[in-house]
């Protein structure tokens, strides 16, 4: 096991002196970056600025105990820490401020995130994993200021898992589980539920996690006393303090942001607890100042009085650090030794200003150079057309008058020119069109790539393997199919684990994991508390560290607790890092067609609209669900798989090739052929639609039934349009609210697949009522589409076109 900072600090005075001065210089460079960054916004060269000034010393101390393989999950104040672990340079800091789209110049997000959002690159260019134990790691930041906490739990728990779990390639992700996950959060955001849920779970699980709370007394303008029950978060957390001899709780360390030696000691102790004892630690850093206020959006002079501002100037960490250095002396071999003179520190201050300015200038020149290249490739081609059209001349004149030019200005000029010269077929216009198409593809990649995986492990690339059946294949309950398939999965993939409410000991509420904990252990088949947001977070963090977690959310209705993390974090991981990180988490849930307001809802439209970036898979039975698990465990993308809640006791034939067969994503299945109308549905509703189709046959209507199976991605081969081309009528049926998922499905079929061309009748949607379903079987009947509803509404389509053959029912 690696030794801790406490155990290794036996150094000479010269080394000690050098470390102090290096810290001072780095702190000053970071501060100058903050000052200069604010000026860049106020002069219009950058759009927004939010900085880490005032937090330099605690971040320098934290960096000293941050080792290769460790992870940070934080928010946008940690620039000094990122500098200290070499995850950030002055140039890349300003490149992010300018939204430079170069991955080489801005590796954290390629210009997609506003400044202060840090990340290291976990992946090679082909999407394969780097050796994460050979580098210091930052999981990509998000702006919701407690949203980083659930992920932190998973990053920490991965170390616990790796103490026992080994698999081919696991050495890239952990060295015997010795890594710590570091989290950072502003004190005001400790009022958020995500903070409390994460800390509670960490204390229960006993994971190696250090949470730093930067306490500057305010949440933007709102003072701490209005944020929490107690102004002192350490006092509030006192009940979490672990007791001697108990394997619960955490350690709490409070330290002042301006006390350099105390900060070193605090983080050394925190590392020791977390790395050697696997105990979560809270480091409450108080007396933090914020010299420039919250951000460039406003001034802190509006809400801080003169006394507070004077105190902040006096207790600025770098001011106090300078005082401490100048007052430090020690006698060694009869000679008084000092760290530095005032003149030497002043020289460091000047060097820091020069370093910040030099890095800013380089970043700006690089950013502007890319725009100039674009201008040079487009504008001469536009100029070739100005003699042919006065509108082009006007557009050029306007463009040339712009003081600063952005990419959007160049594209606007090109598009205005192409619009003005429409209908013209000339070599000059064709040249412009060709170049415009070329640069458009580049910018499409710059701004819109990697929402989904672009690697060879993309889910769409996973080969379909059909279920194999024989004379000996048994008819069993659906839950037996899923259970036995999970058995094969856990045997085949030692890196796979599952956790959730009632998942472990009782084998989930529907017995789909019966006996799995007994066979594979409580570490891999685990129960959790009732805390959906951090169940999701556990999965996100563990998947970022190379494990293959399945996070079980007991019912689809309760996925709403996870929706913020799904939308803001999981769905955007690959996108916001432009392929630099991934989190191939599988969310397991079950829903639809049970009974009661909170056990039979259908928030599918919300999931679809808010979680683009996550595959949404809606199998109609448990065999299909098992196939999707087998598919996604070979893929490197996140997915939610919604099992049919009413399918666990229904009989299915169990495939002979459990753990091997796959269901392809983005592929529909025609489960009943027909010639008069296409019925499109998914999930539990499929059974009822099939019943309705059989009833319609008796009425002389031949209905083709299509199971979508995969909402995202959706019908990649456009097979539904081919069905509509044959039947000339389309009905979309589900149990979401009106205009919900059916609206999405119609847009895909009518707009993307152009199936409107084949319709002889208006497209019809049959959805549930807009309210939540009422309780019991009658509540389901009157709340959601029944067989009767479907038969009557579909029959009415034919009554409209041929009332003699299909006389009205009512």
From TrEMBL:
Residues 476-650 form the Transketolase-like pyrimidine-binding domain. It comes from the Bacteria. The keyword Oxidoreductase applies. InterPro entries: DH_E1 (IPR001017), THDP-binding (IPR029061), Transketo_C/PFOR_II (IPR009014), Transketolase-like_Pyr-bd (IPR005475), Transketolase_C (IPR033248). It holds the Pfam family Transket_pyr. Its cofactor is thiamine diphosphate. Keywords: Oxidoreductase, Pyruvate, Thiamine pyrophosphate. One of its GO terms (molecular function) is oxidoreductase activity, acting on the aldehyde or oxo group of donors, disulfide as acceptor. E1 component of the 2-oxoglutarate dehydrogenase (OGDH) complex which catalyzes the decarboxylation of 2-oxoglutarate, the first step in the conversion of 2-oxoglutarate to succinyl-CoA and CO(2). This is Pyruvate/2-oxoglutarate/acetoin dehydrogenase complex, dehydrogenase (E1) component. It comes from Chryseobacterium ureilyticum.
């Amino acid at each position: 096991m690696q030794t801790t900072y406490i155990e290794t600090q036996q150094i000479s005075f010269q080394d000690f002196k050098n470390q102090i001065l290096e810290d001072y210089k780095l702190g000053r460079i970071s501060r100058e970056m903050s000052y200069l960054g604010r000026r860049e916004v106020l002069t219009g060269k950058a759009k927004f600025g939010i900085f880490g000034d005032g937090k330099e010393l605690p971040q320098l101390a934290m960096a000293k105990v941050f080792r290769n393989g460790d992870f940070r999950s934080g928010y946008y104040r940690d620039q000094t820490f990122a500098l200290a672990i070499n995850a950030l340079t002055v140039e890349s800091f300003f490149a992010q401020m300018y939204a430079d789209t170069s991955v080489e110049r801005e590796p954290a997000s390629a210009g997609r995130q506003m400044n202060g959002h840090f990340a290291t690159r976990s992946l090679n260019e082909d999407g394969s994993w780097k050796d994460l134990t050979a580098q210091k790691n930052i999981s990509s930041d998000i702006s919701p200021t407690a949203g980083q906490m659930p992920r932190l739990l998973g990053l920490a728990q991965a170390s616990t898992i790796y103490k026992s779990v080994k698999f081919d390639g696991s050495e890239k992700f952990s060295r015997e589980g010795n890594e710590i996950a570091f989290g950072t959060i502003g004190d005001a955001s400790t009022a958020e539920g995500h903070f409390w849920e994460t800390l509670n779970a960490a204390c229960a699980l006993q994971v190696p996690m250090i949470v730093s709370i930067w306490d500057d007394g305010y949440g933007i303008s709102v003072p701490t006393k209005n944020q929490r029950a107690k102004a002192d978060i350490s006092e509030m957390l006192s009940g979490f303090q672990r007791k001697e001899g108990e394997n619960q709780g955490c350690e709490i360390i409070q330290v002042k942001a301006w006390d350099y030696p105390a900060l070193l000691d605090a983080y050394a102790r925190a590392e020791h607890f977390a790395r050697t004892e696997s105990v979560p630690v809270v480091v409450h850093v108080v007396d933090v100042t914020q010299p420039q206020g919250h951000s460039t959006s406003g001034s802190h002079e509006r809400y801080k009085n003169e006394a507070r501002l004077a105190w902040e100037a006096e207790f600025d960490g770098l001011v106090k650090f300078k005082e401490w250095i100048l007052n430090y002396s020690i006698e060694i071999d009869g000679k008084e030794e000092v760290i530095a003179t005032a003149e030497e520190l002043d020289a460091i201050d000047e060097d820091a200003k020069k370093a910040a300015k030099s890095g800013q200038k380089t970043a700006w020149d690089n950013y502007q150079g890319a725009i100039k290249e674009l201008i040079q490739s487009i504008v001469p081609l536009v100029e070739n057309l100005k003699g042919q059209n006065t509108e082009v001349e006007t557009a050029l004149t306007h463009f040339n008058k712009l003081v600063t030019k952005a990419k959007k200005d160049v594209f606007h000029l090109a598009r205005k020119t192409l619009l003005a010269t429409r209908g013209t077929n000339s070599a000059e216009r064709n040249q412009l069109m060709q170049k415009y198409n070329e640069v458009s593809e580049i910018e499409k990649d710059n701004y819109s790539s990697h929402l989904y995986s672009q690697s060879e492990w993309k889910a769409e690339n996973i080969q379909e393997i059909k279920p194999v059946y024989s004379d000996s294949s048994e008819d069993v309950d659906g839950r037996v199919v899923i259970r036995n398939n999970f058995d094969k999965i856990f045997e085949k993939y030692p890196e796979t684990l599952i956790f959730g409410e009632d998942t472990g000991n009782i084998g989930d509420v529907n017995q789909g994991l019966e006996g799995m904990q007994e066979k594979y252990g409580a570490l891999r088949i685990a129960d959790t508390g009732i805390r959906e947001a951090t169940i999701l977070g556990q999965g996100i963090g563990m998947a970022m560290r190379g494990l293959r977690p399945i996070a079980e959310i007991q019912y689809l209705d309760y996925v709403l607790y996870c929706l913020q993390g799904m939308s803001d974090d999981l769905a955007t991981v690959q996108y916001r890092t432009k392929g630099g990180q991934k989190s191939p988490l599988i969310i397991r849930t079950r829903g639809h067609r049970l009974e009661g307001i909170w056990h039979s809802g259908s928030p599918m439209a919300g999931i679809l609209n808010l979680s683009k970036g996550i595959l949404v898979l809606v199998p109609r039975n448990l065999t299909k669900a098992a196939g999707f698990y087998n598919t996604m465990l070979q893929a490197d993308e996140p997915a939610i798989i919604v099992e049919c809640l009413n399918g666990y006791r229904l009989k299915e034939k169990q495939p002979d090739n459990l753990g091997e067969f796959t269901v392809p994503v983005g592929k529909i299945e025609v489960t009943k052929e027909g010639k008069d109308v296409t019925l499109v549905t998914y999930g539990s509703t499929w059974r009822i639609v099939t019943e309705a189709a059989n009833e319609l046959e008796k009425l002389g209507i031949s209905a083709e039934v299509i199971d979508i199976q995969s909402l995202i991605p959706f019908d990649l081969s456009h097979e539904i349009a081919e069905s509509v081309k044959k039947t000339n009528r389309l009905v979309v049926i589900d149990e979401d609210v009106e205009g919900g998922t059916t609206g999405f499905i119609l847009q895909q079929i009518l707009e993307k697949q152009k199936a409107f061309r084949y319709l002889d009748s208006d497209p019809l949607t049959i959805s549930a009522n807009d309210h939540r379903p009422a309780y019991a079987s009658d509540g389901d009947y009157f709340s959601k589409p029944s067989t009767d509803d479907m038969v009557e509404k579909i029959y009415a389509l034919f009554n409209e076109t041929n009332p003699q053959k299909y006389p009205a029912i009512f």
